[in-house]
């Protein structure tokens, strides 16, 4: 199990991005969170197998129907962080 995090920019707030991310993560057996940041981006933290995280990373670059994703940037995350369930904040 590994932890990875991404910051997604574009039209990603107010378009059900966080809840859609939660649903995709659940399908892939991933734990984590999706949180709106003050600058209009969404930070997604994930815990799971590399292969499943790579799959959702590809999904993040598209997002749900009304999103317009401009970029997905991987950011550092504490590998000791314990992520349980999936939190939308």
Could you explain the architecture of this structure?
The protein is α+β, with helices and mostly antiparallel strands and 89 residues long. It has a single domain, classed as 2-Layer Sandwich (Alpha-Beta Plaits), CATH 3.30.70.100. The chain has helices at residues 17-28, 50-60; strands at 2-11, 31-36, 42-48, 68-75, 86-88. A five-stranded mixed sheet has the order 4-1-3-2-5. Strand 2 and strand 3 form a beta hairpin.
**The CATH topology, please?**
Alpha-Beta Plaits
CATH class type: Alpha Beta
Rg over CA atoms, rounded to whole Å, is: 12 Å
Task: Tally the structural domains.
Answer: 1
- Poorly predicted tracts of residues: none
Mean pLDDT: 92
Distance between the termini: 23 Å
- The share of residues in extended strands comes to 35-45%
- Fraction of residues in helix: 25-40%
Contiguous helical run count: 2
Q: Could you give a quick summary of the protein structure above?
A:
This protein has 89 residues and is an alpha+beta fold. The protein has two helices and five strands.
Please outline the helices and strands.
Elements: E1 2-11, H1 17-28, E2 31-36, E3 42-48, H2 50-60, E4 68-75, E5 86-88
Parallel strand pairs: 2-5
Antiparallel strand pairs: 1-3, 1-4, 2-3
Helix pairs in contact: 1-2
